[in-house]
Specification:
Structural class: mainly beta
Shape: rod-shaped
Largest sheet: 12 strands, antiparallel
Number of domains: 4
Number of strands: 46
Oligomer: single chain
Number of helices: 3
Distance between the termini: 20 Å
Strand content: 35-45%
Length: 545
């Protein structure tokens, strides 16, 4: 009976332990990152009552053994994935897949699946118990060196994004292939004619014109007034006489040609004044007789027969010098008279001094693609002094898509040019951060730039069931876990880090209730074994009576 009593006692003790495991699981059903435990039993030592032996027939008789109860074989944790619950807090992190976050409590390396982290007053990313989260710090270029040591994740609120001088500007868009420049033209309202209404020639004498009602004499004048294309006033006098300015229409046109920045021609008896420049013009012209003339000639007025037009389009962008100061750069494209050719001019709106590379022409092939770029002074870089103490800037104007942005073309359609990219920046302060699926902490700065600040480490444990729980949802390695492999999520380890989520406990409450019923019944059955064994022992002690 003593064996039965001790077996019953072992059953009670171990099923009570099973209840302890179940109770712990249920207690942690809402614990972030908790992993449920499972207990398994094994038979205790067995007592040999009779050895195996051979009987007279030659057959073997099995050994006779009786068990001495039950013992706990193992208590194992189930590290299966728990569901990820959204929290909206960007420092709450959940792992989808294998791996553990790596912590350091100042004395040892710890591991956890509970990602309810926050930043402390020193900018360190820490767990709920204050242990620091481990990872790697990126350099100024946002790169995590391969040989960088594992250390605390720290986000310094005073972190700066340094000023960088602009070195490349991308130019894209389209210039209208149908655009043509027009020169302003003024044409006499009347035709100079000779006898019979025949249109006069340039060599025709003024006194041979039908418009001359009284012959001109030497000293008579024709007064010329007006404005040039740029608005500057024009005043000149044609004096009739062979020894002075002349006597023919051509002689008059020579005076006009000298007075205006235009070309003068006679077309079917009408004087035409054409600007030598393209585009908008302020040209005007008036001819009148001198007030003291002896002769008399009817002079024509002039009408605007062609309005000046110069196809052009402009765009601008802000660039930055070595001190981070902004400069507004304007680029203007103007259609030239040459086929498929446009000129460009670059200006800066402040006190900057441009020394090279601000003007030139671009020519297009017949398919609308950019063919050649010619700078006026042979330089292919824009050089200018910011004139504020910053270094002289050397900027490459990328017409040809070398920086990865669309290049400029010439197709029929509205001209629309833009400067989609420049690689400079002003100084910026850290304004916000985010954590991506690989554990990279991406800082966003007030200058609009972003870069990697740090990257969280993930540990892969070969035998996670061998981890030793040390409280606060953390574990430490043991002899049975092997050495942890520490790497990066999505690169070295098949896992993703999801910001704004935490991993819930993987406890299955229904399964725990079932296990609780089984443990309860097993405990009751073992108690009955002890009760019956006690009754039998009681009967034995009554035999002497």
């Amino acid at each position: 009976m003593m064996r039965a009593l001790f077996s019953g006692v072992s059953g009670l003790a171990n099923n009570q332990l099973k209840m302890d495991v179940i109770a712990n699981n249920i207690a942690n059903i809402n614990t972030i990152g908790f992993k449920t435990s499972r207990i398994s039993f094994s038979e205790e030592l067995s007592q040999l009552i009779g050895s195996a032996q051979q009987n007279t027939s030659g057959g073997m008789q099995n050994a006779v053994m009786v068990g001495l109860g039950v013992r706990t074989g193992s208590i194992e944790r189930d590290f299966s994935q728990g569901i990820l619950q959204a929290t909206g807090k960007n420092t709450d992190l959940g792992i989808a897949g294998d791996g553990f976050f790596v912590l350091n409590d100042g004395l040892r390396q710890l591991f956890t699946r509970a990602g309810n982290f926050h930043f402390d007053g020193n900018g360190r990313l820490v767990a709920a118990n204050g242990s620091t989260i481990q990872g790697w710090t990126a350099d100024q270029n946002g790169e995590v060196p391969q040989t960088a040591p594992l250390g605390n994740i720290v986000v310094d609120s005073t972190l700066l994004s340094p000023a960088i001088a602009t070195r490349n500007i991308s130019i894209g868009g389209n210039l209208d292939a149908t655009a043509d420049p027009v020169q302003e033209q003024w044409t006499a309202s009347r035709t100079f004619t000779t006898t019979g209404g025949v249109s006069a020639l340039a060599t025709t004498e003024l006194n041979a014109l039908e418009q001359t009602t009284t012959p001109l004499v030497a000293g008579d004048t024709i007064e010329i007034a007006g404005t040039n294309f740029d608005g500057t006033p024009v005043t000149a006098t044609f004096t009739y006489g062979a020894g002075n300015d002349g006597t023919t229409i051509q002689d008059l046109m020579n005076i006009l040609d000298a007075a205006f920045t235009s070309t003068v021609a006679l077309n079917n008896g009408k004087i035409e004044l054409t600007d030598i420049n393209f585009g908008e013009s302020q040209t005007t012209i008036t001819l009148s007789e001198g007030t003291s003339n002896t002769g008399s000639i009817t002079l024509p007025g002039f009408i605007n027969t062609a309005t000046g037009f110069e196809p052009k389009t402009s765009t601008s962008i802000e660039v930055f010098d070595s001190l981070g100061a902004k400069h507004t750069l304007n680029v203007t494209f103007t259609k030239t008279p040459n086929t498929r050719e446009w000129s460009f001019e670059i200006k800066l709106t402040g006190d900057e001094v441009i020394t090279e590379g601000s003007t030139g022409t671009i020519a297009f092939a017949s398919d609308g693609s950019l063919e050649t770029i010619t700078y006026s002074n042979g330089e292919s870089l824009l050089l200018f002094d910011p004139n504020n103490g910053a270094a002289v800037m050397s900027v490459n104007l990328d017409f040809e898509n070398q920086t990865g942005f669309s290049s400029i073309t010439q197709f029929a359609g509205v001209s629309s040019v833009l400067l989609p990219f420049q690689d400079g920046q002003s100084q910026g302060h850290l304004s916000s951060f985010a954590i991506d699926t690989s554990g990279k902490i991406l800082g966003t700065f007030t200058n609009g730039r972003s870069r990697v600040i740090a990257q969280l480490a993930i540990a892969k444990i070969n035998n996670p069931e061998g981890l030793l729980p040390v409280g606060d949802n953390t574990y430490m390695s043991s002899a049975s876990t092997g050495l942890p492999f520490i790497g990066k999520a999505g690169e070295d380890i098949s896992a993703s880090i999801l910001s704004g989520t935490v991993e819930a406990s993987n406890v299955d409450l229904a399964a725990e209730f079932v296990e609780m019923i089984i443990a309860q019944r097993a405990f009751q059955a073992n108690s009955r074994v002890i009760t019956v064994s006690d009754q039998i022992l009681s009967e034995v002690t009554q035999l002497k009576r």
